[in-house]
User: What shape does this take?
Amino acid sequence: MAQRVLVTGGAGFIGSTVADRFLAEGWDVTILDDLSSGREENLPASARFVRGDITTPDAAALVRDGRFDVLCHLAAQIDVRRSVLDPVYDATRNILGTLNLLEAVRASGHPTRTIFSSTGGALYGDFDPPPSAESNSKDPEAPYGIAKLSVEYYLAYYGRVHGLDNVALRYGNVYGPRQDPHGEAGVVAIFCNRLLDGRALTVFGDGAQTRDYVFSGDVARANFAAATAALPERGRLDARAFNIGTSIETSVNTLSETLREVSGATSPIEYAPARAGELARSALDTRKAQALLGWTPQVTLRDGLAQTFRYFADRRARTETHR
Ligand SMILES: NC(=O)c1ccc[n+]([C@@H]2O[C@H](COP(=O)([O-])OP(=O)(O)OC[C@H]3O[C@@H](n4cnc5c(N)ncnc54)[C@H](O)[C@@H]3O)[C@@H](O)[C@H]2O)c1
Assistant: This one.
């Protein structure tokens, strides 16, 4: 019988790419999503779709009774700025929603492996020079990162005390087809749309600030690798956490130049005052994922940006023909 995976947030940008990966590997895929930011058009045709909110008893019942081998948990409030404006809303979905699912896994008595989508980009803060290793100190800049870190403590606790099989993947700034402008790598979506509109690309500050941009297809492969890897000890923060990035620092200046090159568009670049509270540098050390998950990123920034721009250009062409 095919292995069974539940992908929460599977109508979203990364979750739908994760669902595609498991389907391609022959798994039976169920998606749970409330479509709050996800889109029906992202849902793979051969997945089963359940519309629902992870904070509800119905979602808990689905997990408890579903006999899933793997739970890829991506459903979340993903907007860092919104978490600053409304930390209670962020914590309700990102902490309590996750706890609801973990309690359901515990109640099921089924050996489900939970793979949690955490963040590397919003976790480590700015105190040590990049790339950050999993064991680096954590100093989240926003409630969004605090919620992700809180969940990681719960994952460790459920592993230690209740024997649950949990993994945390700490993503860099994920970009790729289907992304929207609100995520941690929203700048790529914003720039693609601006290039298509022939408008200037706005860079805040001097553009030297760096991020670790990782392609969504590589992140989906990391989820699959984490689903199937034999993993060591559970129950300690960081023990089952893996950075998923490229280890490469890319500046906003390099990002905007590369996007202009691959798109062939000629939009000018304009500079605006730096935004308060932005990290100066960020990149993730991914040697642990390589050693224990056998995972390395495969898509270069140039190829990934070209694929992403093509997606936005095709989508634009489709909506214009439907007008
Ligand atoms: N995009 C990035 O750069 C990045 C970086 C680090 C971590 N992550 C994490 O990866 C995951 C996926 O992010 P994404 O960029 O694909 O965002 P997304 O908004 O495209 O996907 C999130 C999905 O979750 C669904 N959802 C939200 N709240 C829900 C709820 N209460 N119940 C059910 N469904 C709900 C949304 O409808 C959406 O389909 C998130 O957990 C996010 O925090 C993303």
Notes: The first helix runs from residue 13 to 24. The domain at 4-174+213-244 is CATH 3.40.50.720 (Rossmann fold).
